[in-house]
Design goal:
alpha/beta, 6 strands, single chain, Macrophage Migration Inhibitory Factor, four-stranded mixed sheet
């Protein structure tokens, strides 16, 4: 039950959105037991993201929430993958991307909790 939320301060075209969604589906497998089959993705473009006091340069903030936990090496691999994806698809340089991880122990789905 992973969730990836991406906020960027630039426009994202439908084609770019599809590229991101598909690539995130592959990248999430860096975490054992996670797959695109359960992945939910949200992409918010044209946000007011100021980084280092500046919004004129492309910035990205990515939140990843997972049910359960993952190892440091899994997070390292996912960070590298997500950074590469956003840099490649949206031309946001790696030094303008923050990624936040959150491990969730209670996750509801289909009217019940895991």
């Amino acid at each position: 039950m992973p969730f990836i939320n991406v906020k960027v301060n630039i426009p994202v075209s439908p084609a770019q959105e599809e590229q991101l969604k598909s690539a995130f589906g592959k990248a999430i497998t860096c975490i054992k037991g996670k797959s695109e089959a359960w992945l939910m993705v949200n992409i918010e473009d044209q946000q007011r993201l100021y980084f280092k006091g500046d919004t004129s340069v492309p910035n990205a903030f990515i939140e990843v929430k997972i049910y359960g936990s993952a190892s440091r090496s899994e997070y390292d691999a996912l960070t590298a993958g997500l950074t590469d994806i956003v840099s490649s698809v949206l031309s946001v340089t790696s030094d303008r991307i923050y990624i936040k991880y959150e491990e969730v122990q209670n996750w509801g789905y289909a009217g019940f909790n895991f």
